[in-house]
Amino acid sequence: MKSHYLFRTIIASFIVLSCFFLCAGDAGAASAGTVRVALVRDCADFSFQVSGNYEIVDQATGRVLAVLKQGEKMQVGLKGKRISLSGSRSDYGTLKGPLLVREARSSASVINSSNRVMEQSIAALMAVNGDGRTISLGSSEAPTVRSSSKTVQLTGGSDGLNLVTLNSASAGKRYRGDMEFLLEDGGLTAVNVLNIEDYLRGVVPAEILSYWHPEALKAQAVAARNYVMERAATSRGSFDVYCDMTSQVYGGYDAESSSTSKAVEETRGIIMLSGNRVVSAFYHSSSGGCTENSEDVWNNAVSYIKGKSDPYDKNGDHYNWQVSYTTDQLIKKLASAGYKFKKITDIKELARTSSGQRVKKIEIKGEGTDGKPLTVVINNADNVRMALGLKSSLFQLTRQYDKQKNLTGVEITGSGSGHGLGMSQYGARGMAEEGYKYQDILKYYYSGIELAGDYGR
């Protein structure tokens, strides 16, 4: 009889006290899979708080350490080679980790056999029925409880929105989904684990202006979906993508806008395929008037990344820009890219891309830091762009000399912004404004691709 009494007490406490549930997302949202986004790396400590229903789990043991209260601030830090966790209610000591701040299916205030009110995740609660069988209350999508007078279905919160606010040295930002803290190379890394569609809500407005034409926003949503799906499928580390330009810029919940979220929703599950394989959807800001073959800019030839003229990319932001470097400035710029010169005596172009527009190879001569003659040849257009610190490799270079014909510097005039592969975002805007649909935009910039629904399944 004791177990039946405890069961009745738990059920009563569900009704009398408050019970909070996550609203389950629709089946389509879940089918996209998840992505792991590195937010902050090599950090000594974090603090965070939650909005909605969360619990924190020690993943080494699977043990739920705490059901988090709204706004409760928790501290995560380093202690030796372990992760420390503490909050206003308890110090949890040090743990091997990783620690996962996980969206809880539900949480509830319950009264135990000692008449003490405790907060519990419903996923961790078991009930005993009249036949003596135990069931997990967390195993039901919508648990119901029955009193002598009525049956009640336990429902979610007011909006079902769960957010984790991560506070680091730089700022506090809110994120959907889960948050994982793990040890990596002696420091702490924070990884946001969330549904791909929710991830895209925070990517599209960070990568393209939210007030642009809706068809351009939808083209960006599909390209970003392709990029992250390809990365999530091939990554082998503790995370799939970075949150910055190393991968795609991801601003979390606070970056979201209604127009870009609409673009994500209206293209839900739509991806580009080439030969039944997910396209690696490279994109850039402005083509400067033409795109390139992938092998000219990077190393490998990709069938769907082919150069073409881009008459749709017209803007006043990324055309006819100019940069001037003295030889001393050039030495510093090259040093930051790993090319160490003490003196530069010459720099010249050796080759251009197939379009004839971008510089594919340059040669730099001078004196190395050891005082010996040094010649460096830089291959591939994107390496040239990054070595010289330029917006684009679509440029013309003019050398400057003194009266003794010694090199004193260079003047560079160029157009475009980014690597020049795949879709130009300004070009997508131009096509959209001329009446093209997002499907047309994608098929123009990615050669021979097909669009498929349901994530290509």
Q: Please, could you describe this protein's structure?
A:
The protein folds into 3 domains: about 1-195, no CATH class; about 195-285 and about 425-455, no CATH class; about 320-415, no CATH class. A hairpin with a 5-residue loop joins β12 (about 125-130) and β13 (about 135). It has a 7-stranded mixed beta sheet with strand order 5-4-9-18-19-2-20. A 6-stranded antiparallel beta sheet has the order 8-7-6-3-16-17, with no helix packed on it. α3 (about 195-205) crosses α4 (about 215-235), α3 (about 195-205) crosses α5 and α4 (about 215-235) packs across α5 (about 260-265). It is globular. It contains 10 helices and 31 strands. It is an alpha+beta fold and about 450 residues long.
State the domain count: 3
Our count of helices gives 10
Beta-strand content estimate: 35-45%
How many strands? 31
Overall pLDDT: 86
Major sheet summary line = 7 strands, mixed
Distance between the termini: 52 Å
Low-confidence stretches: 1-31, 138-142
